[in-house]
Design goal:
alpha+beta; Peroxidase, domain 1; Glutaredoxin; 4 strands; 65% helix; globular
């Protein structure tokens, strides 16, 4: 892991642990999961939201005012609104993706669940996601939460990461292996 990525992860972990503890004390962990989904969706769907998170053009005050307004409009919990305001004030909004991921992991670990990062060539249907989750639960013995993303360069198949384990059934990986094997022969 590169040094900047390591620093971002460290910052995100500190915020995530603190927010999780606050939500747990207030009995709002379920509400926190909804907040995570809302923010993850906003990052996926809105270039303007991402610009607000990343752009150095905005002053601390402008960024803080904007993020609080967006968070309230989205109906986020007070714990998350206050956290977002603090992150903006400290110029830490750039770690939001790592923060949300770490927060999901904290919640899953507390529930005794594992999170599987699944990358597919096209979006998984609900039935496919449920079947994959069930299959992983049978092989790992724990409840699995699927964190799905799409990478069309895979051509087909899946890459599944659970903890330190990775299963790569993508067509692009198989083509790369075949290409390497052909180079060795010829």
């Amino acid at each position: 892991m590169s040094e900047p990525a390591s620093i971002s992860k460290s910052i995100a972990e500190r915020y995530a642990v603190a927010v999780y503890e606050l939500a747990k004390e207030a009995n709002e962990v379920d509400r926190l999961e909804i907040d995570i989904d809302i923010l993850a969706s906003a990052m996926t769907d809105s270039d303007d939201f991402n610009a607000l998170l990343q752009s150095p053009i905005y002053s601390r005050h402008e960024q803080q005012s904007a993020i609080v307004a967006v968070a309230r409009k989205a109906g986020l919990s007070s714990v998350m609104v206050n956290t977002m305001a603090l992150m903006a004030n400290k110029r830490r909004l750039f770690v939001l993706p790592q923060f949300l991921q770490t927060l999901r992991e904290e919640i899953s670990a507390a529930k005794g669940e594992l999170t599987a990062d699944v990358i597919s060539a096209k979006s998984l249907t609900k039935a496919q996601s449920d079947k994959l989750s069930k299959s992983l639960k049978e092989s790992l013995g724990k409840t699995i939460t699927i964190n799905a993303s799409v990478d069309e360069s895979l051509i087909g198949g899946l890459i599944v990461k659970v903890g330190s384990k990775m299963i790569d059934t993508s067509i692009s990986s198989k083509l790369t292996s075949l290409q390497s094997a052909m180079k060795e022969v010829g």
